[in-house]
Design a protein that fits this description.
This protein is mainly α and about 1000 residues long. Helices cover about 60% and strands about 5% of the residues. It has a 5-stranded parallel beta sheet, with helices on both faces. The protein has a 3-stranded antiparallel beta sheet with strand order 1-2-3, with helices on one face. Strand 1 and strand 2 form a beta hairpin. The longest helix has 24 residues.
Length: about 1000
């Protein structure tokens, strides 16, 4: 690289290097060119005579034509460094002295900045040009200066001093420093050994005694005068361990290296004082006694601020109060200016302007001072580096919670008051809830842990709704505002202006925070400037989007203030109406190309919508509750939150007769279909509710009924009604409703045995869902198509479809759907025979479940895992999972009556693998009875195929072939994607479907299973 003149930097304190001003390294060339550059750099900006250069580069054996050889070297150097010029006095390198590290080192050393000077060294001086005649003397001079600098600094640790002493054993000053360092660590005998060794070397090699200075150090070591000395510690006493802030400690320490003022800002109870203290305690200046801590919490007037800082120095002053500030500042500057210093100014928020002015002036007066300030808002002065300190990390559904900072802190403090307390199955849920509901705030967690002196962890959890009464057991030695949770919040609240107080209390209606538009609609029409002030004062957090939220503890306190102000009813009414309108605006868009945008809005606002809905239900605001539920219901279905949807529908319907008829009919239909899935609905109830939806006009108003009503009729085995509702949806102007009609039609056609027609209907549904932009409908259809393709025996094609469904689920951020897609993929890979990939898919699903903390999903996943393990021949592991499933599923509200049926199918397969045909037959019979009672033809067919395998194993191939034939009559085809079915067909042949009706086939299968008809 070549650059313009004047931009060269040369480094000689190590291997010779050259770089552009921006630090870009330059390839200098061969050894002799490097020697020339190094020699010229030792006289920067001055010409070096030609004769001097020849002597310094070649010594006593110059080349025959030395001048030409030198000129050739100069030409080679100029190719990379045009700053080399020929002048009357010789060749000159046109750089400033400070562009050569040798001269920067000497300048910094002369100024006493030894740390900066020594950092320039990268190894031995002139390390790669030592063969040049000039280099040895220059390197020796530089190395001597380096050693002298190390000795002058006198702060090296024992290992560094030992290394230098071994390299220079006759340097008495180094030996003295090493002896002092060893004594400071209590290693007196080693220090005396160093002295004896040096004395012997001096006598043997130089014939002299140690210097008087070294003899004095020896005598002091013998007397024990150089033993360890405790550093002056002016910081608050640390009586508890420092837990959960390791990353923050590193980051703040790094900031303090680069900035002279670092302000830790955050809400009360976040641990700002403790973090500042810990940073100061670990700073190098602490070991030198150059750290001071000034607590400002008790200072009430600006004129007392300097006195509080002087109090930290154990210095007081009196005199005229009007002159105290100036005199105090002068004396503070004298103390801090005596050397490098670090000052901690703790709790500046109630004196924010005087504290800022004081800090700014102090930093100007004392150039070698660094300051750590703690405050609930920035000092806002030049040079300030802010470090926002928020809550500790809290678990959010993860199974393994022990590594989270909030949990670690709570456990540490809990063990201090209740030895033996630990995180196990009996405590983990309560600890997780305490950490989450207290926002991971250190002081709140410490107050909660202190309650373990007199309460169980379960009792603490149960009383978190009354947190201000609960958390009152702080240290008696703490400041009054740190002894109770209420006092912590009140300290911040009392610093707010009237306008800030009004907005802050109204913000309490938003449990999930809000964007500016919502805040201006609900709280204040021109809120931005007041809002930013609340952010500055750590009452409100600013998140991405931007979105404003309160920590839960502050929000609870603000809600009390809202109630006391008499504004709660009016503010809450505006809040509920706002979220009704928002949900009704976005609800139709959840079935369009704006689906992901709508989902993002729902995710951000979910807790707010829930609060509005629950509040409307509790206050019997029937129409408002119904509108809110209608606005959020489909989002819940898309995200797989069926349990919440069912509970909310039940609660809204319980409000009674004042609900609009169309909404009442719609919710009753939804309630019935959710209770029916995946079983069957009562035929008469379903028909009546469907007719109510038609009569009230709900079918025209709520597009989701285009899917719900045909499926409700289908599940009640009313094909005529189901086809009528399919036709109604197919005639809709809404393209999504037409897609839903084809989707529902595919179920009807499968049940009627028209598999090809069903596949065509699914294809049409998929194409229309994609055209409408509905990823949820597309994913559901892909799952149906994958199962159909798998039954044909094309496992690879089914896997491809399931993978597409997984991609869509991930787009929708539906973790429940992602789990299901992973386990369907796992099952299909297992059917294909790729057991390693199947287990990897199960592992991915388990990771999602761990993050979700969804016990029901974990339960169903254990069932899927057992099937995968069974197909890979790991029967014992499958059996253990089956036992776990049966035990855990007894409390499942989702599986209900299906537990026995699913268990029977799984245990039948395990029994077949164990060659326990009698046990397998009994379990299959139970499954056939359950599935046929429900009228679920696909499930009946699956179990009939199992019974066929048992009959074949019993040597009854005629019965096995008949069962396969009956399976075709029930399902329309065999499941040739199942390797066990393929194997059976290969051994006994594939029979034709019999000329029987489905009911007749079903009756015959039941008879073969030994089910007695009443």
């Amino acid at each position: 690289m070549i650059w313009e003149a004047g931009l060269v930097r040369v480094a000689l304190l190590g291997p010779t290097e050259m770089a552009a001003e921006d630090g870009t390294p330059v390839d200098i060339g061969g050894a002799r060119v490097r020697m020339l550059l190094a020699r010229l750099a030792l006289d920067p900006g001055r010409p070096v005579p030609t004769t001097t250069l020849i002597d310094d580069l070649w010594g006593e054996q110059p080349p025959a034509d030395a001048s030409n050889a030198l000129q050739s070297l100069v030409s080679r150097l100029r190719k990379v460094c045009p700053d080399v010029t020929l002048e009357p006095g010789g060749y000159r390198l046109g750089v400033e002295q400070d562009d050569v590290d040798v001269f920067r080192f000497e300048r910094l050393r002369a100024a006493g900045r030894l740390d900066e000077a020594l950092q320039l060294w990268r190894g031995e001086a002139l390390a790669d040009v030592r063969e040049a005649p000039f280099a040895q003397a220059a390197a020796a001079r530089l190395e001597e200066a380096r050693l002298a600098s190390e000795e002058e600094r006198g702060e090296l640790d024992v290992p560094a001093l030992t290394a230098l002493h071994e390299k220079h054993p006759l340097r008495e000053r180094l030996a003295g420093l090493l002896m002092r360092a060893l004594c400071a660590q209590g290693r007196q005998s080693e220090a005396l050994h160093v002295y004896a060794e040096v004395r012997g070397r001096l006598a043997d090699e130089l014939g002299v005694d140690p210097s008087a200075e070294l003899q004095e150090i020896h005598l002091a070591a013998l007397r024990g005068e150089l033993g360890p000395r405790a550093a002056v510690d002016r910081l608050p006493v640390r009586l508890t361990s420092f837990v959960g802030r390791d990353d923050e400690l590193t980051q703040v320490s790094g900031l303090l290296n680069d900035a002279r003022l670092v302000t830790l800002v955050g809400p009360g109870g976040a641990g700002k004082t403790r973090l500042a203290t810990e940073v100061a305690a670990r700073h190098p200046l602490h070991t030198k006694g150059r750290v001071w801590f000034a607590a400002l919490a008790g200072v009430r007037a600006a004129e007392d601020l300097a006195g509080a800082v002087l109090g930290a120095f154990d210095v007081t002053f009196g005199g005229d109060p009007l002159r105290r500030s100036s005199e105090g500042m002068h004396r503070i500057a004298e103390v801090l200016g005596a050397g490098d210093s670090l000052l901690v100014l703790d709790n500046c928020e109630h004196l924010i302007t005087p504290a800022a002015e004081f800090c700014g002036e102090l930093l100007r007066r004392v150039p070698n001072l660094r300051v750590i300030a703690t405050s609930r808002e920035p000092l806002a002065i030049d040079g300030e580096s802010l470090y926002p300190l928020g809550p500790l990390a809290v678990p959010n559904g993860q199974a393994d919670v022990g590594g989270f900072g909030a949990v670690r802190l709570f456990l540490d403090r809990a063990k201090a008051v209740r030895p033996g307390f630990r995180l196990d199955e009996s405590t983990v849920d309560d600890v997780r809830q305490i950490c989450r509901r207290l926002d991971g705030m250190p002081l709140a967690l410490e107050l909660a842990a202190a309650r373990l002196r007199s309460m169980t962890v379960q009792q603490i959890t149960q009383r978190l709704d009354d947190r201000f009464r609960l958390l009152t057991s702080g240290s008696r030695t703490a400041l009054p505002r740190q002894r109770t949770l209420r006092a912590v919040v009140e300290w911040s609240w009392d610093l707010l202006t009237e306008e800030e107080l009004q907005l802050a209390r109204r913000l309490s209606v938003f449990p999930a925070g809000a964007d500016l538009a919502a805040i201006e609609q609900v709280c204040h029409p021109d809120a931005l400037y007041v809002l930013t002030s609340l952010v500055e004062k750590s009452i409100v957090d600013l998140a991405d989007a931007p979105r404003y939220r309160m920590l839960e503890t502050i929000r609870v306190y603000a809600a009390e203030q809202l109630e006391a102000s008499g504004e709660r009813a009016e503010t809450t009414a505006r809040f509920r109406r706002y979220y009704r309108d928002l949900a009704q605006h976005w609800e139709p868009l959840t079935r369009t190309a704006r689906q992901l945008e709508a989902i993002t809005v729902y995710e951000d606002e979910h807790d707010n919508i829930i609060a509005a809905l629950r509040g409307a239900i509790d206050d019997h605001e029937v129409e408002l509750a119904a509108d809110l539920l209608g606005g959020v219901f489909w989002y819940w279905l898309v995200k797989g939150d069926n349990e919440r949807a069912a509970m909310s529908v039940h609660d809204v319907l319980a409000l009674g007769e004042h609900m609009p008829e169309d909404l009442s009919a719609t919710f009753r239909a939804m309630e019935l279909i959710m209770n029916a899935m995946p079983g069957q609905a009562h035929k008469d109830d379903a028909a009546a509710i469907i007719d109510d939806c038609v009569r009230t006009g709900a079918t025209q108003k709520y597009p989701s009924l285009a899917l719900a009503l045909p499926m409700l009729a289908f599940l009640s085995h009313n094909h005529e009604l189901a086809r009528r509702e399919v036709d109604r949806a197919a005639g809709s102007d809404d393209p999504w409703a037409r897609a839903a009609a084809d989707w529902a039609m595919s179920f009807i056609l499968v049940d009627e045995g028209d598999l090809d027609g069903a596949e065509l209907a699914r294809d049409r549904a998929y194409e229309q869902f994609v055209a409408a932009g509905d990823r949820w409908g597309s994913a559901m259809t892909l799952g149906l198509k994958a199962a159909f393709v798998s039954h044909t025996g094309d496992n690879q094609a089914a896997i491809a479809l399931y993978q597409r469904g997984l991609d869509v689920a991930l787009e929708l951020r539906s973790q429940d759907d992602a789990v299901q897609q992973h386990w369907r993929l796992a099952a299909e890979y297992a059917r294909l025979g790729d057991h390693a990939t199947a287990e990897r898919e199960i592992a991915k699903a388990e990771q999602y479940v761990d993050r979700l903390g969804n016990d029901q999903m974990a339960l169903m996943l254990s069932y899927a895992k057992a099937e995968v393990l069974l197909r890979s021949g790991r029967v014992a592991e499958a059996r253990a999972l089956s036992a776990h499933f049966k035990e855990a599923a007894t409390t499942s509200t989702v599986l209900g009556s299906f537990v026995a049926e699913w268990s029977a199918v799984l245990d039948a397969r395990i029994a077949i693998a164990d060659n326990d045909l009698t046990g397998a037959e009994a379990r299959v019979a139970a499954a056939i009875e359950s599935t046929s009672d429900r009228g679920d033809m696909p499930d009946v067919a699956t179990v009939a195929e199992l019974l066929a395998q048992i009959r074949h194993a019993q040597g009854r191939d005629d019965a096995a072939r008949r069962l396969l034939a009956l399976t075709k009559a029930v399902r329309g085809r065999l499941d040739l994607g199942d390797p066990d079915v393929r194997r059976l067909v290969a051994e006994i042949g594939e029979p034709e479907a019999p000329q029987v009706t489905k009911p007749e086939a079903l009756q015959e299968i039941r008879g073969e299973a030994g089910i007695r008809e009443d």
